[in-house]
Amino acid sequence: MDLLVLAYDLSLLTFVLGAMIYGIPIPIRGLKRWGPRLIADSIMVSILVSFFTVIKGFADYILSLLGGDWSTFIAFMYLDVTTRISAILTVSSISMYFKMLGIAPLTRVLGMIVSKLTWSTYMALILFFYALFIKYSHTTLMILGILFMAIPFRIARNVGAFLYSLALVSYVMLPLYPMFMSTTFRLGGISTSTIFIEGIITTYTGTSLDSGYIVLQLHGKDNSTKRLTLPVYSGKFYIDLKPDIRSIDVRAWLCGHEFYTNVSSTPINELNCRNLSSSIMVCRFKAYTQGLLYYDSGLTLHLYPHCSLISMNTSPQYVVAFLNCSERTKLFISLVSSIDLQSVFIDNKSVVVEKEYCWYWEDLQGCTYTTNIDEGIHSVAIVIERNGEVFEPTSVSTSVESFSESRNIVEALITISCSIYLYIVGALLYLIMIVSIANGLARFLGGGIRFRIV
Amino acid sequence: MDIAAFIKDLIVKVVAIAWLLFILSWIIGWAIKGSPIPMGKARRVGQGLIEDAVWGAFWVALGSTIFWLISYIATSLGTSFPAPPQVEVP
Q1: Is B10 in CB contact (< 8 Å) with chain A?
Q2: Does the domain spanning A298-386 belong to CATH 3.40.50?
Q3: In chain A, which residues have pLDDT < 70?
Q4: Structural domain tally of chain B?
């Protein structure tokens, strides 16, 4: 905000400089013309400075009117980039397979597809990082732009005008990118609308899980059920679904156990969804896992029936928790085989744990140990030692959604080709649009207001 | 901030210099206009100087009013805009 005050002072200086030049007794036309120019420039800069908050509020208003939202857009871009990367991995693994079989032309074609996909991923990444940059520094850029415009004698006016208009236009236009990408889907009347889901999975105390997997069960409108396994990326999981889903179950899949969450057979409209456009809906919600006390890379602590958590202290070698149990509770410690359970202390006294059963978690083996905790407040300390590198399964198969049926083969071909084109080129196209619109706005600001002051 | 204080100081100085220059060019303009030079161009130069001096004095006098008007419009617009709707994550 200091910079804005500086810009305002600079505009005042420009104004009085312009008035002073008006009064210089040297009758040179070229010099005298600077007078009205400087006065007009200073009034424009002071309008920009005073109306800074108003213009920002107006930009937010337009954005909300068109249905754009910055956090939803960032989630959409994250999902977009991750799906592109997984598409590249799929196609290149297929081409490796064909290479092994020795079918040369097919490998070449697949190689071409991979290179186009890689290029489009780079574009999407550029758009993603540009979006993050604008999200965190658009105000600074706008203020810098106004400051440059405020310098007298139009020294840096073009630079400032372009900075300001780029920041403003990007701020308004970037969250409308998902709507832009969905325009092809309206061609031919085929509505392949999608539901984007961004979910946070937490323990029953509300601490979010950094890693691990979840199992999503989708109940379709025709009573069919489909199971999907998704990884958790730093506390969140993302998936895009077809709209013919009636309700979903979210279960945490950790150390061979599937834990129920509060999202079980929840209809889609109860998941805090909003319509980004007529064909895209975004749902963001939190799922609380019942019975799960703690999870970190292959170590799961779960209990039954229930204890409330007072405090917890963790480190890579131990977990110490203070629990208040209302009845006798069984504590389950599930570990993958690369983690050794060294000792368990309840109220600083060593206890013996029983090995109840062993399980497979995709390709990892592990076992569950139990001990009992009496009623009341107790401190539970678990000391472990991690050996090796792998604590979570790495190769989990995720299913791929199939393309929807279309009435007409020609319409389908047109839609497919348009959507492929937009899928590859969309990010670059949008960036070019943003820059050219910003250029136009900069011309408008930097060209100056043509006051005809005598 | 050093620069802000410097600019404010500069503004005060420039306003003082501007008033002096107006009076000076007004006097010079009338002097040229009233001088016995028979060329019409000299008279027009004098006329131009007088006009510009008067316009300049007008703008300096009006400057603070204009800037007050702009900030008044800005504050009244700022309070009347509706707040954009926000989406909350539960």
Answers
A1: yes
A2: no
A3: 1, 183-192, 276-279, 395-409, 447-454
A4: 1
